[in-house]
Amino acid sequence: MRRAVKRTTRLVWVETPSNPLWKVTDVAAIGEIARAAGARYVCDNTTATPVLQSPFRLGADLIVHATTKFLGGHADVMGGAVVTKTRDPFFDKVRAIQAAGGAVPSPFDCWLVLRGLSTLPFRMRAHSEHALRVASFLARHARVETVHYPGLPAHPGHDIARRQMAAFGGMVSVEVRGDRDRALAVAAKVRVFTRATSFGGTESLVEHRASIEGTGTTTPETLLRLSIGLENADDLIEDLDQALA
Question: 74 with 201: CB under 8 angstroms?
C-alpha cells in the first residue's frame, strides 16, 4: 500500500473482510498511510457491520454499507449508506450529489432498514456463531480443498481480525475438490440452503461466485460463497455434508 499511494492519491478505499475470499485488511495501519498522504480514507464495512467492527475508531473518515445485506437483514430491501465522521464541506458535497442525483430511498425502504437494525446485534452474534461452526466442519471435510473464513486460525488474516473485530461474521467461502462442474453439482444438491446471489439475510444462501461475476472473473471456479443464516447450525452442516457426498 505504501508503494501504491502517491502524492496525487486523494482517496484510499478498503473492504474488510473482502468479498468473496474474506481477506482481512489492517484498518488502522492503512489509515496511517492514508493520513500521511493527505488522502480521505473509506472503509466498506458491509460484511462486518457496526456490530463487529468500528472503522471510525480505527482511523477511517467515511464508512459505506450496503443496507441490502446484514443491516436490512431480511432480503427485502435494496439500498446503501455513506456515513461520515464529521459534517464538513465534503459531507455537504456528497449529500448534494445524492439529492440532485435522486439516490434517495423511499420512506418504506428506510423503515425496513430501521426494522432490521433493531435486531442487528442479536443476528450478527448468531450469524458469526453458526458460520464458525460451519467453517470448522468444512475445514475437516475430505472433499473440501480450502475454506476462507477469518475465524479459522489457519486464515492468513485471523490475527488481525481478532484484533479489530468483535466476531468474525456470517460469510464463508469454500473451494471444493474437483472442478467447476463439481462445485455446481454441490450447489445444486443443497436442501436447506437456497441458491441465490445476495447475502446477509436470515436464510442461508449458496452461490457459485465465478458464474455470477462472469467473464474475466479471478474467483476460483471451484469456489462456493455461503451466507450463513439463522437456521439451526446442525441442519446447515448436515445439508452441506450430503451435498458434498
Answer: yes
Unique residue bearing C-alpha cell 474474506 = 22
* DSSP 8-state class, residue 16: S
Q: Other C-beta atoms within 10 Å of 224: how many?
A: 27
Q: Is 227 helix (H, G, I), strand (E, B) or coil?
A: strand
Structural domains in the chain, CATH included, are 11-117 (3.40.640.10), 120-244 (3.90.1150.10)
This prediction has a pTM of 0.95
Q: What is the DSSP string of 143-207?
A: TEEEEE-TTSTTSTTHHHHHHH-SS--SEEEEEESS-HHHHHHHHHH-SSSEE-S--SSSS-EEE
CA distances from 232 to 50, 134, 147, 204 (A): 24, 11, 20, 10
**Cβ 24 vs Cβ 52: under 8 Å:** no
Shortest CA distance to 174 belongs to which of 117, 226, 124, 133?
226
pLDDT of residue 212: 94
- Cβ atoms within 10 A of the Cβ of 167, count? 20
Burial of residue 209, with CB atoms counted within 10 A of its CB: 0-12 exposed, 13-18 middle, 19 or more buried: buried
Q: Which residues contact 74 (CB under 8 A, 6 or more apart)?
A: 112, 115, 116, 201, 202
pLDDT, tens digit, 9 for 90 and up, residues 104-155: 999 999 999 999 999 999 999 999 999 999 999 999 999 999 999 999 999 9
DSSP string, 53-106: --GGGGT-SEEEE-TTTTTT-SS-----EEEESS-SHHHHHHHHHHHHHT----
